[in-house]
Amino acid sequence: DTAVSQTPKYLVTQMGNDKSIKCEQNLGHDTMYWYKQDSKKFLKIMFSYNNKELIINETVPNRFSPKSPDKAHLNLHINSLELGDSAVYFCASSQVQGGKGNEKLFFGSGTQLSVL
Amino acid sequence: GNSVTQMEGPVTLSEEAFLTINCTYTATGYPSLFWYVQYPGEGLQLLLKATKADDKGSNKGFEATYRKETTSFHLEKGSVQVSDSAVYFCALGGKLIFGQGTELSVKP
Which of A21, A69, A94, B67 is least buried, going by the fewest C-beta atoms within 10 A? Predict the structure, then answer.
């Protein structure tokens, strides 16, 4: 049973479309994250939620909107997709709240987004 | 602000060679330090961690020591295998900052 699962695994879409990526964790963790990994493997945090509350919001265009209906789910909605949004997006969760310094992250297997 | 710098890849080694991947950091306070590994087509997974100065993290033959005096957390393995081929990320706890990743390729 996958600990952190995200869907879809691949997403190919046209510029200007709106799309969502879903993430669920069954580890009972309080904190969830979205990371973006570019073509050079550079990994950058986008958002972090703790128990449905936003705690980290990096400099991300407001076309990206996370939604956390409960602490086991953190979905990512992207409006008006652009070519530069093409990347692999990773969801992750942790037991300890981000910022406390002792956290171990569990990652999903990624969603490869290709904007044409 | 806090940051992590890793040696650039790709690193190509022969099986059974010694591995070092350098990682240095800049941080306020004493955050935990981590090494994560990403195998092809997968998400990252924790390889090892150290929570305070002079701590040594180890797992699967990999080791790294938290060096406060040199602000480093270099990853080492005495004898690499083909199955170790992956991308390795050094990370700083707190705001969870990752280095740029170092791709390792081990040839038989």
Answer: A69
CB contacts < 8 Å between A and B, how many?
60
Nearest Cβ partner for A103 among B93, B97, B101:
B93
Cβ-count burial of B41 within 10 angstroms (0-12 exposed, 13-18 middle, 19+ buried)? Answer: exposed
CA A94, CA A72: separation in Å to the nearest integer?
A: 11
pLDDT at position B72 is 96
B11 reaches A (C-beta below 8 A): no
Whether residues A110 and B43 touch (CB distance < 8 A) is answered with yes
How many CA within 13 A on the CB side of residue B24? Answer: 5
The one-letter amino acid at A98? G
pLDDT digits (tens, 9 = 90+) for A67-105: 999 989 999 999 999 999 999 999 999 987 655 656 788
CA distances from B45 to A41, A105, B87 (A): 15, 8, 11
Q: What is the distance between the alpha carbons of residues B60 and A68, in angstroms, rounded to a whole number? A: 36
Neighbouring residues of A8: CB distance < 8 A, sequence distance ≥ 6: A21, A111
